[in-house]
Amino acid sequence: MNQFQYVRPTKQKAAIDALAKDANAQFIAGGTNLLDLMKRGVIASQKLIDINRLPLTKIESQNGSLRIGALALNGPVAEDRLVLERQPLLAQALSAGASAQLRNMATVGGNMLQRTRCPYFYDTAMPCNKREPGTGCGALEGINRMHAIFGFSDKCIAVHPSDMSVALVALDATVLVSGPKGDRRIPFNDFHRLPGDTPQKDTNLEQGELITAVEIPDAPFTKHVSYYKVRERASYAFALVSAAAALELDGTTIKSARLAMGGVAHKPWRLTAAEQVLVGKPATEETFRQAAEVAMQGAKAFKHNAYKLKLGPNTIIQALKTAAAA
Amino acid sequence: MKTPEKQIGARMNRVDGRQKVTGAATYSAEYQLPGITYAVLVGSTITKGRITSIDTKAAERAPGVLAVITHFNSPKVPGFDTAGKDPSQPATVGGPIKVFKDDKIRFNDQPIAIVVADSLERARFAAGLVKGQYAQEKHQTSLEAAKSQAFLPTSAKKNPKHPMNDYQRGQVDAYKTGAIKLESEYVVPTEVHQPMELQAITAHWEAPDRLTIYDKTQGTMATRRDFAREWGLPEENVKVIATYVGGAFGNALHSWQHESAAIIAARVVNRPVKLMLTREQMFTMVGYRPYTWQKLGMSATPDGKITAITHEAIGQTSTFEEFTESTLAQTRMMYESPNLTTRYRIASLDVNSPIWMRGPGEATGAFALESAMDEMAHLLNIDPLEFRLRNYTEQDPEKNRPWSSKFLKECYQLGAERVGWNKRQLKPGSLRDGDWLIGYGMGVGTFGAHRGSSKANIRLLPNGTVLLQSAVTDIGPGTATAMTQIAADTLGLAPEKIKFELGNSNFAQAPTQGGSAIVNTVGPAVQEACLALKEKLRTLAASSNAAFASAKKEDVVFAEGYLTLNGNPAARVPFADLLQQVDGGFVTVESKPQGNASKNYSMYSFSVHFAEVRVHALTGEVRVSKLVSCADAGTIVNEKTAGNQMKGGAVGGIGMALMEHAIIDDRFGRYITKDFADYHVPVHADSPDVQVAFVNKPDPYVNALGTKGIGEIAIIGVAPAIANAIFNATGKRIRELPITPDKLLV
């Protein structure tokens, strides 16, 4: 771990200014990922700007949406009455992530910004274009059983590890950011990037920008929802594959649907084509199977992750079944 | 007066439980000696080759740094030149790498430098500044690729009676001509011990020729011997303290390079040095359960009698030490098979040396044997429990002699009832609850009931309490608690009046804790020491009280402030009078196995594990919904701590079966699973409430207590029980551990 400066501003503007003028600075909130990365030498920030004193923890009902402050903690958000009533899919996804201890430290903003768990990214003695552009992708010809089947490039095949983000992309959330050039709103699906030729950039945030909140529009997905996460133990592990499913049912007919996957791409993977398959059809396993088939179009496996081509659709089916039965 | 209740068998709480849960227990990294310094190791980033240079300048200039030691400037360690030349040393093959002695790199993350600073943070920062340059050579870290170069261990080549030699009864490979036969290959991958407490040492040169180390070790005396030899010191000049050990599972059965490095560093800075490995270094700088490939052939008659078994295994070792373990031992004695062949080989890889991990080779071997038993039962369309009963051994078929005791049938019955074995269907995939397939499986375990020799110190204190001391360590089973119970019954004294001190090489000689042998070995020494103390006190009391002269030592009774006699409460001698005569010293007793029992009888503990699993039909997720472990381990000294050991072993077995897998990317020779995010061990949600049952019948021959040992049989057989249950649930036979969802989706 390198030596670094540490500041703790209490005003949002001061925090943004501090970051904007220092390319080697970084925000720290819960620190559950950043500190690990610094201890391993993956990230060597010269300055940490602790934003925990900024007033960004509120969860509030707005006209037509639910607004969750960027510093609201994952654990409390998952148990919040408003969230449970209006966005139960988000609560499920949050509860599926990490451990109780980590959820009580990790923030909503930080959760979106967590880095990939690709082991080549974590080991400074191995090649990784995301950590050190130009060194190559260790996973491409390596042990890639946890890696992407959608949207990868020959520079990077890592996956995004967040559970929460899978629910948020399904729920059409918006990320609110504030920066040196003012405030802007980023649709959740545009927040994370595909690796392309610049895998070092995980998101479309610009230098100096601070996530202040996420907004989730009200929608009729308060009952038939399921975040189904398949992992190698019952709790406290990253997803092999996960699926977020939300259904609006009229009797047994699907009026509208939202579907996304985790553990399959460099970003939370929204499945709009598969959603279209569901709409107007009966909520049966056969319908879910058709949607899953469409969802998997274009998927491609590497040496060690071919199982995801089967686990992917099965997880979607399981999530939809669970959602329909909820 | 009231006779104290019998303590052996009682569910007594741990005598050190309070210290452990309140943080009062001091572990090896927690000794804050005056002038303490902190060290961090730097590991190589290549797997094989030579160090051409190490840039230490920046680290040396970093704040608070006291020393940066590499092979370029390390002081001469006298034992590094003489090691292996001492004819009194046991005939081991190879030896651990001598740290900082030369430029050779033999495995990835091999220590190349140690940085000592005045704080841990400064040492860690400076360690990050040390950069090695290497001349890299081609390496091999894959056992699958090195299998063709596997060889018979040198210990076996040198000694035809060595158990690592090929074994034969009846005809060679007779299964090949059997009527009903199977031949399957199995893989148990590398697993790491990763106990909660990291490997840690605090090294302190109290004088130029006197070394004290506070060390995470399973054997204070073995560690003392190793470092006395390394520094050319008499053993009494080296003191090893390991009062508390936060789990070990075999990881601390070996002296590793980091221990030598810390001692060297303490020599250089002339201050105490504290060194704790990181979680990542626990994958590389210490041992692990070796990747092992196995092939098992078996034939049987249609009515379920095994006619032949051939079991072969190849385990990995390093290029500098030949590590072996008893992978094939259970196969030779568990089932009545007239024809039986075993062949054990090892293959050298560019990795650190393995070290026995709980259950060691037997747990690896049992995965193959007990899976094959299930496969054969399925082929024969016979219930797997019935199949095992048809091949039950009433005497040891390997040594052709009786068992000292064997109550495995009783274990089968207990376990089958508790798990609900009668619900099991012969046809796989028959039971279902919604999306979950349900199956039942069993696996058998055995481990030698070893007893060595040991000493115990005992002493009566003025307040009427008794102090016992032993160099033995406690890596978690509750050694001091069990010994207190044994002493309480033998002395007739309440357990609160007994103190058992351990974990110090200056105490009475005891073996290293491992191999399920401590209660078997140290228990009798404690028992005999208690009797010796009673006899000594009786003799002393006889000089002032005639009634004691004619009494037996068994009748001596401790009372409040005085000694009396059973059935003669009038006879009493105050402790104060006795202590004047005993001069306050210890009575030391040595206890050894007596007679020919170990030659005339085969001594083993036995266990059986029954699992009920649920497998998700779509996702391949596995949940162990019931796990029942039953053991024939002789007398159970403490059902609470013994049950705790069984549960811990069972949970370890869940890890072995379903998730533990240390993976090396062979292109680099580096682990890609280097933390608990990538290397999975079971969490609470993965473990059902493990049910434990003991037969609890004393073994008449192992020792006077009737104990046989628990630690290993707690895990041996668990992984195949789960694998067999998965087969019963799904019809999918997975022969390569761990059984992760991807393998069940294919």
From TrEMBL, chain A:
GO terms for molecular function: FAD binding; oxidoreductase activity. The keyword Transport does not apply. The keyword Chaperone does not apply. Keywords: FAD, Flavoprotein. Residues 1-221 form the FAD-binding PCMH-type domain. This is Xanthine dehydrogenase family protein subunit M. It comes from Hymenobacter qilianensis.
From TrEMBL, chain B:
InterPro entries: Ald_Oxase/Xan_DH_a/b, Ald_Oxase/Xan_DH_a/b_sf, Ald_Oxase/xanthine_DH-like, AldOxase/xan_DH_MoCoBD1, AldOxase/xan_DH_MoCoBD2, AldOxase/xan_DH_Mopterin-bd_sf. It comes from the Bacteria. GO terms for molecular function: iron ion binding; oxidoreductase activity. SMART domains: Ald_Xan_dh_C. Pfam families: Ald_Xan_dh_C, MoCoBD_1, MoCoBD_2. Residues 22-138 form the Aldehyde oxidase/xanthine dehydrogenase a/b hammerhead domain. PANTHER family: DEHYDROGENASE, XANTHINE DEHYDROGENASE. This is Xanthine dehydrogenase family protein molybdopterin-binding subunit.
